[in-house]
Specification:
160 residues, flat
Length: 160
């Protein structure tokens, strides 16, 4: 149990620094955009409504984003660039970060212990499991890339 608490504590500090830093970079990027040539586009009525909605309702999205893969950085950056008030952002950061740290500490330590036992007791099976996992990840990447690139038949149909 001490191992999980120590790991969760370390991960919590890491996620608070990383997500808080992403929020700060977003805040600075938003401030810079408001002073740039994009200021006219950013001051539109639609953008203002979106900014007010994020300021008001974005905290739950930020908190839940920590339980997703690949969305939490975007959510924190967007919260910063859209100037979510700190009294709304900080609690979402603390709650979401705690959930993230606990999930990764418990599941991460469990997965590492299983892999450690597997490699220690049945090395060939452990190597095979890692190879299958890597092949599955490579397969998903190749599949997604092929779906993202339009085929020559699609480009001919679009040109006509």
């Amino acid at each position: 149990m001490d191992k999980i608490a120590l790991t969760a504590g370390a991960l919590y500090v890491i996620v608070l620094l990383r997500a808080g830093g992403t929020f700060a970079v977003g805040w600075l990027a938003g401030a810079g955009a408001r002073r740039s040539r994009f200021a006219g586009r950013i001051s539109s009525a639609k953008f203002g409504r979106a900014e007010r909605a994020i300021q008001r309702w974005g905290a739950p999205v930020v908190a839940v984003s920590f339980l997703t893969v690949g969305f939490q950085t975007a959510a924190n950056f967007l919260a910063g660039s859209m100037r979510m008030p700190l009294p709304r952002y900080i609690p979402a950061l603390f709650v979401g970060g705690a959930a993230w740290a606990l999930v990764y500490a418990t599941a991460g330590i469990g997965a590492l212990e299983v892999l450690g036992r597997l490699f220690a007791e049945r090395t060939a099976l452990g190597v095979s499991a890692v190879a299958v996992l890597l092949l599955a990840v490579c397969g998903v990447v190749v599949y997604r890339r092929r779906r993202a690139v339009p085929s020559s038949a699609d480009t001919v149909a679009d040109e006509s």
